[in-house]
Amino acid sequence: MNKRIGIYPGTFDPITKGHLHIIERASKLVDHLIVGVASNVRKGPLFSDEERFDMVQRDIQNLHNPQCEITVELFDTLLISYAKEKNASCIFRGLRAVSDFEYEFQMTGMNAKLNAEIETVFLMASDKWQFVSSSFVKEISSLGGDMSGFLTPAVHERLKEKLK
Question: Which of 6, 25, 75, 120 could lock onto 108 through a cystine, CB 3.0 to 4.6 A?
Answer without folding.
Answer: 120
